[in-house]
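Homework-ish question, so no full write-ups if that breaks the rules, but can someone show me the predicted structure for this set?
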Amino acid sequence: MKKITKLGAVSALSLIIGATAAFAEDIKIAFIDPLSGPFASTGTNGLHQFEHAVDFMVNDEGGLLDGQTMEVVGFDNKISPKESLIQLQVAIDQGIRYIVQGNSSGVANALTEAIDKHNRRNPDSRVLFLNYAAVDPALTNDKCNFWHFRFDANADIKMDALTDVIAADDSIEKVYIIGQDYSFGKAVSAAANKMLGEKAPEMEVVGDELHPIGKVKDFTPYARKVVASGADAVITGNWGADMLSLGKSIIENGFEGPIYTYYAAGSGMTAAFGEGGKDRIRLISQGSINPIGSDRARDAYNSFLERHPDGNIDQSRIYNTIGMLAEAIKEAGTADDVVAVANALENMEYDSMWGGKLFMRPQDHQLIQDMHIGVHTDEDIEFPYDSSTFGVKTESTIEMASMDSPTTCEMKRP
Amino acid sequence: MELILVNLIDGLVTGLLLFMLSAGLTLIFSMMGVLNFAHASFYMLGAYFAYSISLAIGFWMGLLIAPLIVGLAGAGVERYGLRRVHQYGHVPELIFTFGLALLIEEVVQFIWGKNQMPYSVPEVLNFTAFSIAGNSIPAYKIFMIFISISIFIGLLYILTKTRVGMIIQAALSYPRTVEALGHNVPLIFMGVFGVGTALAGVAGVIAGPVLGTFPGMAFVLGSIVFVTIVIGGLGSLWGALVASLLIGWITTFAKSYNIAMSDILNGIGIATPENMSDNPFRDLWTITSPQIADILPYILMVLILIFRPAGLFGKRES
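A: Not a homework solution, just the prediction itself:
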């Protein structure tokens, strides 16, 4: 009996070792974002889109190089910079060379610094940081480094596009700016003040305030201030539960104008806003879902829905991230030498399936792309969000937004 | 002036909601000496159950049935969980309820996912009741006030005027004597726990559509409920009411008016330092009231603990 157990144990062990050897060829991507806590839904939905993107764009097409597949591994950082650094170390120790993260610029700032340090000290296990959603402008300005690439437009680029639309709207004379109290919320407020001042100096900013992130139970007092200020429009960079509660509260408590947002769609938000938010909630994003950018994008969306019937592709830049990474690995001919991959990513021009061209600016690693301003509605919606009838319809597009915007980045190359 | 009235109403809504949560918690504590860390989780369960029920048979049935289910679940937890742990003392009880809170959050995420649920105000109540200087007061808020006040009056009546209430109050202070008189004290405990959690369930049902129904909803309210019952005095229903309203109004007013710390300091005769960037108290000078609104209840709690350890209406000195 004992012998059989031993035999079983040994064969099981060898099987495990054999299996790891077979998988060692995979290109692994570490996804470090909140998978628990108040922002869990945003993180989990991002992970689902990454998992689908690697399967749809890489693995189902026969893989990369000699048929290597890509795999996304989720790491829960509980939205804490400290926890993220621990998870980063775990990922590096597992031999992962590509880190993706997006939720919270606070976390991104910590990660980019840690990765820069790590890469300088450990040239043998360098990693790349592909930032798909953290939009603090500092990341591609003062704090830029060679290892960080941003696939979302930064807060300034988005605000540039938003303020173009707001400045052109004659019915808006007073705006109210409100955001979460951390680096990103402050960046949104600073950019809005500066750009409105330049583009529409007659416009008045009647309120500019920050609230604690993820801790406000009831936004009613804030909504009262918005109404009392007589604002015609609200600008907010809020996301997650903070976005939904703020938006609902402002609408319910008597505000009549439009709410310009960065992230008010998907993750249950679109369904929860429903009729109340119709034609009121506007958001700036890259990648147009309604109308959809191409037939391939339609296939991608439908195949995503097969896997997650209740899910949404609300961050189409995730597909751009994977597509461009795959392209760069092909061009570099290796997935292990991240310097070669980074060099291939720089300056890359890529045709996105969501429409438009993408260009990775070499001087600061900021992706330049078309920006769309969409409205929350249930008319002309091919792909609604959250299994509701509502979705985001593109109203206006700014091509290659902020292509020539200045940057303070002084990049040191290895 | 009008804004003050609006804020009074908003604060009242927040306060009464907090009261429904803390009333159950304080009852449970005064009875069994158990601080139920999972209390806010029952609030979350109330919202989720009501959402699922409302999809099938409408909001009103949800309001009726969801608290019942939550109450039964609470009673079950007391009967088969807490009662067994009770014999090992208070620390195991605390750990048990703490674990339960984590467990409920995971189960909720497992069943309903991590997304926000589109649980919304019923059509009948989805209109503006009245507006004061452009600030609309949704009818749903009036409904929330109405429900919470009726629950308070009902509870007060049962506890002070009925035979059941008398037995409960007696069991509070002299459980052995009450048992010797032939009353089933464990059953009373189970009932109180069930009713307490059902109250949290009601709070969840009516707060879910306004404050959002998502897995983090228990977490945001969890600690403030404890603060409320400490300020009000552990075990006191009136204390819970007064403390809830106090907290509701303090936070609402602090958020509604941008009172800057520099104004207050200037007001009491301290001049603003010339060079703010080098000043060690820079952070203190730049604070505004909305930034600290959410920690004001905690400051109040510390003050109460220093000057009146039993709480505003607390009787026990132990």
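Now go work out the reasoning yourself. Hint: Chain B has one domain: 2-256.
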